[in-house]
Amino acid sequence: MSRYKKQPSIEQKIITGIGKALWVVVSFPFKKKKSGDVADRWKEVQELMAKNDMHAWTMAIMKADSILDSVIKKRVSGETMGERLKNIEGKISRDALQSAWDAHKVRNQIAHGDSDISRTQAQTTIANFRKVLNEMGEM
């Protein structure tokens, strides 16, 4: 009985290498994007906020709310964003949860046409969305 392990032949090494390469190529399109997806979507929010236009700011808030909702959907259930925010309580800090609620309320005001928004209010709202996304490890 030999004390050494039998080394794989060159043919076995080549076949194993080809198999691994094929696995990477075939599985690559099916891998989920990680936080890069959030980062890419967040760039759109920043571009909208850079404009001197209230309509752009409201669109930025709507996009930021959508980003946060997609992140929260991965972690908790709920029919609406409001339900999901209730269900995420205890999984994020109270401060982050309050920021999420504050930002989402502004989004709802915009969606229902209840108010115009100032640049300062838009910046504060976007900062609230960002705070929550940061805490959740998405940015």
> Which CATH architecture is right?
Up-down Bundle
Largest sheet features: none
Specify the helix fraction band. 55-70%
Number of helices: 6
Can you give me a brief rundown of this structure?
The chain has helices spanning 10-27, 35-49, 54-73, 81-87, 94-111, 119-135. The protein is mostly helical and 139 residues long.
Describe this structure in words.
The protein has six helices and no strands. It is mainly alpha-helical and 139 residues long. Helices cover 68% and strands 0% of the residues. The protein has a single domain (35-135), classed as Four Helix Bundle (Hemerythrin (Met), subunit A), CATH 1.20.120. It has helices at residues 10-27, 35-49, 54-73, 81-87, 94-111, 119-135. The mean pLDDT is 89. Helix 2 (35-49) packs antiparallel against helix 3, helix 3 packs across helix 5 (94-111) and helix 3 runs parallel beside helix 6 (119-135). The longest helix is centred in the middle third of the chain and has 20 residues, at 54-73. This is RiboL-PSP-HEPN domain-containing protein.
List keywords for this structure.
Four Helix Bundle (Hemerythrin (Met), subunit A), 139 residues, mainly alpha, RiboL-PSP-HEPN domain-containing protein, single chain
Please outline the helices and strands:
Elements: H1 10-27, H2 35-49, H3 54-73, H4 81-87, H5 94-111, H6 119-135
